[in-house]
Amino acid sequence: LLARKVQLPIEVHCHNDLGLAVANSLAAIENGARQVECTINGIGERAGNTSMEEVVMAIKTRRDRFGVDTGIVTEEIYPACRLVSQVTGFAIPLNKPIVGDNAFAHEAGIHQDGVLKYRQSYEIMDPASVGLSSNRLVLGKHSGRHAFVARIRELVLDTSDLDMNRAFDRFKTLADTKEHVYDGDLIALVAQESTRGVRDRYELVYMNVTTSSMAVPHATVKLRIDGEEVLGNGCGDGMVDACYKVISDLTGQHPRLDRYAVKAITGGTDAQGEVSCLVTEDGVTVTGRGAHTDIIQASALAYLNALNKLEYRRQRMAVPAQAEVGP
């Protein structure tokens, strides 16, 4: 009552320990709250915070009930959520409302029949309203640069620090490997190619891994470090472990691997695998990301991406110290 009397906005901040963060936030809006503290993809401590995309779309879809508007451009929700997922390394669950891969998928025959006859039977929202194209099959090996650039822009991806020529070359290489290139493939490609201020000191030139049920996994890796190629080999508990140990020896960096996750970007046996890893060294934690149709190579790319970020952070932290040194 005091807040209303002095015209202060009522704010609500919920955690999702019981899966009720969004429900409680919406209830607060119904009762006068006009500020909701939320996060993209519901990221937060413990079970997470209120999911921004779920609250926004609930308000938009049921505007007749809530009578308020967020002013958010909802068509950018899907690409924003995907970008956050790639930057943080936290995968979006398949059944995540609004932005999960299965959010607008229909497998059961009765569902498919109902959607074909009247889409709103099972879809309370239009996929386009959150920036999701209903046609995810977009490009192939015969697609040209113009089509590639146009699709990237349609996906509302940040290309401000993207070398488009290099990205297109990678797209052509990927298209030669896969029969079809989907939106998810393009999003992963752009995320991996975006420099975001990080100069790649370490680059993968070549790798070869071998394993069997009767032998210790072995990896041979060639890197380009500051323009010079170096070669190393070693063994490990598995192919990824062997590969990571060789890369650590060649770079001289041995961070702690806190998390390693793999997911398929699209379906099919030729799908790209996307690997994300979280590494920590000297109190600095970064995420690495890599995508490739070969999951071991994707793992190597993700680890190198993390090492490059650590190197970049190390250089940034060293600049002030050097500036203080007098003649």
Question: How would you describe the overall organization of this protein?
Answer:
The chain has 327 residues and is of the alpha+beta class. It has helices at 2-5, 21-30, 52-61, 63-66, 77-88, 109-117, 145-154, 164-177, 183-193, 239-251, 295-323; strands at 11-13, 35-37, 137-139, 181-182, 202-212, 215-225, 228-235, 256-264, 273-281, 284-292. The strands form 4 sheets. A 3-stranded antiparallel β-sheet has the order 5-6-7, with helices on one face. It has a 3-stranded antiparallel β-sheet with strand order 8-9-10. A two-stranded parallel ribbon has the order 1-2. α8 (164-177) crosses α9 and α10 (239-251) packs parallel to α11. It is globular, with a radius of gyration of 23 Å. Residues 106-113 and 321-327 have low confidence and may be disordered.
Summarize the structure.
The chain is of the alpha+beta class and 327 residues long. The chain has helices at residues 2-5, 21-30, 52-61, 63-66, 77-88, 109-117, 145-154, 164-177, 183-193, 239-251, 295-323; strands spanning 11-13, 35-37, 137-139, 181-182, 202-212, 215-225, 228-235, 256-264, 273-281, 284-292. The strands form 4 sheets. A 3-stranded antiparallel β-sheet has the order 5-6-7, covered by helices on one side. Strands 8-9-10 form a 3-stranded antiparallel β-sheet.
